[in-house]
Design goal:
about 130 residues, 5-stranded parallel sheet, 5 strands, about 45% helix, globular
Length: about 130
Amino acid sequence: MDNLRPEGEQKKIVIVEDDKFLRDLLTKKFSKEGFWVHAAKNGEEGEKFIYEDAPDIILLDIILPGLDGFEVLERIKKNEKTRNIPVLALSNLSQKADVDRAKNLGAEDFMVKSNFTPGEIFRKIKEILARRYL
């Protein structure tokens, strides 16, 4: 799978977030910044979007109804088609065990929602993409 895109071509992000307010806020922020955004309200929907249209990066909430973020992360990292897509875990969980679990399952990084603004989340996504695709 080749996720490299010509300079200036829109990057694709899948945002998996069950909180409607935050999902809408992040969707608007990333769209305004030039990303093609697919937003999912739960793990099952997010996983479907990820497999259908392999994005450049995934912003994944951990606490989700049904299939949680840890399960989604584990599944996509085991799948040949999606294993190399970088994932930024985003959660209100802040215990070291949760952060370590997400990273051990393959997350590039972990951000605690209450500690960061949408602008800071955007900058972290850009940083991960720069490291990964340049």
